[in-house]
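The authors assume throughout that readers already know how a fold can be written as discrete tokens. In essence, backbone conformation is discretised, so a fold becomes a row of integers matching the chain in length. A single example would do more here than another paragraph of explanation. For illustration, here is how one protein appears when written out as sequence plus structure tokens:

…
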Amino acid sequence: LVLGPILLPEHADPAGARGIDVASIALSLGAMLPLAYGVKETAAHGPAVLPSLAVVAGIGAGWAFVRRQRRMHDPMLDVALFTQRAFVAAVSLILLGLLALNGLFYLLPQFLQLVSGLNPMEAGLWMLPVAGGTVAGSMLTPRLAQRFGRSRLLAVAAAVSLVGCVPITGIGPDVHPAVLVGLLTVTVL
């Protein structure tokens, strides 16, 4: 928090501040929350009436949200971007990467504690290189994208993440924490 104002450049909308679009926010929440509830409840307890109704309500709110965004001059989310193949490919790649990383971020501390026998403090300290790699990657990405181009950088980043992720699939219970943390750190770069 102390270094944020120093290291992070400020960005202001040149068109000026706009008001909060409460209706779009409500519709987006009305889409996401019932869908998440319906999917989670169905996965946990099997199909039932209430989760099914929640999914239908979420889909309806999502449809209304997309329709509203298409009609707005200055939408909260420009849904027209999803008609561009390059955008959809980039977002899909990032989504898959984030799903994999979030799974690893959840499992690594569990592995370090339950399999490697570390206490929570030790497991947290072993996560510091991963956090450092995340920060370093975030700070370097804009400069690298300017120098090499976004498409090339995205392809190289996906390949580097793959190099870190694939060996993790073969990790056994006797692996030293440094190996696992090193692979995950490479993955987040």
